[in-house]
Specification:
The protein has 165 residues and is of the alpha+beta class. The chain has three helices and ten strands; from the N terminus they run H-H-E-E-E-E-E-E-H-E-E-E-E. The chain has one domain: Immunoglobulin-like (Sandwich).
Length: 165
């Protein structure tokens, strides 16, 4: 009968890691798949294919620095966003009409949560990243859509230059 307790103990130890649950939420511990969703301004980029890293700072003066980017069509950027202010800021990529529309919605629902690969909320004195492939030529924006920030001029421009044949 001593073998049954030994088998139970061994089985328990073999499965113990499955019971472990760290301090992070499930989404933070598992690697998230890259979305294949295409937008008019590009799609989520593959971190292994980043061709350039661009650092963008955000300030309580409601400005980004730099606030203008030129990108080659097909280029995948790592946008490293640093909030140098004392207020929450965000960076949302998109077309001008979509950002204006979203900014209006944010006025009605200021605590709305976002979980899109083209958006990043950056608490004061923190950093976040967006990895994005700009695979469509055109003129696009990035902006902080928290109430009052976009209207105060917290907007930047991205020019995606068409690839040469």
């Amino acid at each position: 009968m001593k073998t049954l307790p030994a088998i139970l103990l061994a089985t328990t130890l073999l499965h113990a890691p499955a019971w472990a649950h760290g301090d992070k939420a499930h989404g933070q511990t598992m690697k998230k798949a890259i979305s294949g969703e295409q937008h008019e301004f590009g799609r989520e980029g593959d971190p292994a294919r980043v061709s350039r890293t661009v650092h963008i700072s955000m300030t309580d003066a409601m400005r980004y620095s730099p606030d203008k980017l030129t990108v080659k069509q097909g280029e995948t950027l790592r946008l490293v966003l640093t909030n140098k202010g004392k207020l929450m800021h965000e960076l949302v990529l998109g077309s001008e009409p979509k950002l204006r529309e979203h900014a209006e919605v944010m006025k009605k629902f200021p605590d709305m949560e976002h979980d899109e690969p083209y958006m990043a909320h950056v608490p004061p004195a923190k950093q976040q990243e967006i990895i994005w492939q700009f695979n469509q030529p055109g003129e696009f924006l990035f902006g902080c859509l928290l109430p009052g920030h976009f209207e105060a001029g917290m907007v930047g421009r991205i020019r995606v230059v068409a690839a040469q044949p």
